[in-house]
Amino acid sequence: MAMMQEFKEFAMKGNVIDLAVGVIIGAAFGKIVTSIVNDILMPPIGLLLDGKDFKNLYVALKGGPFESLEKAVEAGVPLIRYGNFIQTVLDFLIVAFCIFIVVKQVNRLTPAAKK
Question: Is the whole-model pTM more than 0.90?
Fold first, then answer.
């Protein structure tokens, strides 16, 4: 019984609740950023690459040229999916930049700690 009381006290601390809210908002924010990258940034980049879907850029490490990524996957050849990697890096950079802006604004609006 003491362990349950201890757990209840731990779970109700402000830091745990703040963390839970942060994780939920972060997951939703991640979906927004993924949509920005997939639906807004990547189509113009794909247009610059002669209309190719950026996610489908790859290098087959074995075997001949394939018509598409799906065909290469079906053939079971080892692949380097550099298009998907670049898209994931862009996702990360956008999230990191947005978090930087939010933290910077919070720090600006928060009064300095009294000394």
Answer: no
